[in-house]
Give the backbone structure.
Amino acid sequence: MNIFRMTLNAILLFSILTVFSSCNGQNQNTESFSETTINIGDTVLELDKSIWVIFQDKNNNYWFGSNGNGVYFYDGKTLKQYTTKNGLSNNAIRGIQEDKSGNIFLDTPYGVTKFDGEKFISLKHVKSPNNQWKLEPDDLWFKGNGDIPGAYRYDGDSLYLLEFTAFKPQANIPAYGVFGIYKDKPGNIWFGTLSAGVCRFDGVSLNWMYEKELSVLDDGRVPAVRAIIEDKDGFFWFSNTISRYRIQHNDSKGQKTIEYEKLKGTDSFQQQVKMELPYFNSALTDNEKRDLWMTNYNEGVWKYNGESLINYRIKDGETDVLIISIYKDNQGLLWLGTNNAGVYKFNGKTFEKFRPLRKSSS
């Protein structure tokens, strides 16, 4: 059987996640945002069903980004909803980050919004003079809407648009559109693109990796590199389980480059439980055994311990839960953002639906 065979749901994955392209320093504030947001936003009783992004800030408040109904803020007692009427650039949230001062940044398909604890401010980007790429420890990086051939860098003062240069995009395919961003252990920034492969920026130069499974497949599909992760052995995985990569960093006469070796990923023929589609849209390593956790939309959650795959199928009643993202909070607990069933949380054995506590009226 062809390993790239797709079900109808898998086809839906690539179409719906095409719009998912537009996806932590130390906090010096000790005041919880829950005390400063009380006068804005709407108090609501439940989350939207389509929650694509989950984030926990340094004060342990949770932020849930929806795919069209703004962002939700939860302090353990009250659930509040913020939308464009409160100052968001757009109601579709593709990423959430926090800077060293405790400001929250929301990445949307139509710009980046900053929340300073009192108000939402839409940031206007500027084009970097001479396309000057920089990398500082406290920088924040944003994907944009997937149509821009580059990424956005925020240095604490300005939001800069930085353009990629390398491959010539194929006709009608924005090859450089950023679908995934990852900061590795040494501090390099990795960008997963729609069809130009993977790019690493080390503060000096951009280095590209191009492989067939990271680009346009033989049957014409464009899976995009949506998630980049390092496993416990130091290997890199780029949005699929077909291959893993050993990365070699070179520094010769001030010129930093990378060399890589492509190795076999999970041996699908030896697995008792097989992934029908070997691409994942979100991934992380846990805090305990540093197992690799992956989601691929319609097949639930996959855990890989270096030897075997374990599958967690998630259902909302009789309906399959369509998973967009997996997130690890400050305590190391795992969460799932979904397209059709709200938010799920791992209880150590399985993923159960999360329902915010309702504030007592007494």
Observations:
- Residues 31-122 form a domain with the Thrombin, subunit H fold (CATH 2.40.10).
- Confidence is low (pLDDT under 50) at residues 1-15, 19-37.
